[in-house]
Amino acid sequence: MASGDAKVEKSEQQWREQLTPAQYEVLRKAGTEPPFSGDYVYNKASGDYRCAACGAMLFAADTKFDSGTGWPSFTEPAIAEAVELRPENSLFMRRTEVVCRTCGGHLGHVFDDGPGPTGERYCINSLALSFEPTEARAEGAGEDDAGVTSAGEPAG
């Protein structure tokens, strides 16, 4: 798991209550959002992309590129151990599924047609992601308005 994140295990009912129906379909049922429909397809802001289900750090904005495919694409995970790659043989094709190692949520797929030194393209559903802009991290320094850190612990 990524940087000491504890494994997140919930019942399907708990996931249904936490996630929107569309997020549940992607993250828990391995669905795919329609191309060019996601919130992060055209996002060019600096920051971190996290798992929408558990908050695990997955991708840094500086590895995102415009693949023209209709889904956010990244050259590599921010932390290699944050994702798990699984062979997938469905829909009459062989692909490699990308899963959040912390909660098991389906993120998307990785292909070998990307730019850069790895040659990989992590094609990820926007619905599987949450985005934390760099400015928000710097301004809040990890605390919310109630003085609680993003880890849920009292600040200070």
Structure description:
This protein has 156 residues and is an alpha+beta fold. The protein is built from 3 helices and 9 strands; from the N terminus they run H-H-E-E-E-E-E-E-E-E-E-H. It has a single domain (11-136), classed as Metal Binding Protein, Guanine Nucleotide Exchange Factor, Chain A. It has a 6-stranded antiparallel beta sheet, with no helix packed on it. Strand 1 and strand 2 (57-60) form a beta hairpin. The model is unreliable at 142-156 (pLDDT under 50).
What are the SSEs and their pairings?
Layout: H1 12-18, H2 21-27, E1 47-51, E2 57-60, E3 64-65, E4 73-74, E5 83-90, E6 93-100, E7 106-111, E8 121-124, E9 129-133, H3 134-140
Antiparallel strand pairs: 1-2, 1-9, 3-4, 4-8, 5-6, 6-7, 7-8
Percent of residues in helices: 10-25%
Number of helices: 3
Q: What is the CATH H-level superfamily? A: Peptide methionine sulfoxide reductase
**Class by alpha and beta content:** alpha+beta
Give the CATH topology: Metal Binding Protein, Guanine Nucleotide Exchange Factor, Chain A
Q: What is the domain tally?
A: 1
Low-confidence stretches: 142-156
Tell me, what's the shape? Answer: globular
Counted beta strands: 9
Strand order of the largest sheet: 3-4-8-7-6-5
Over all CA atoms, what is the radius of gyration? 16 Å
N→C terminal distance: 27 Å
Beta-strand residue percentage: 25-35%
Look at the structure and give the mean pLDDT: 87
Order of helices and strands: HHEEEEEEEEEH
- Major sheet characteristics: 6 strands, antiparallel
Q: Class in CATH?
A: Mainly Beta
What would CATH call the architecture?
A: Beta Complex
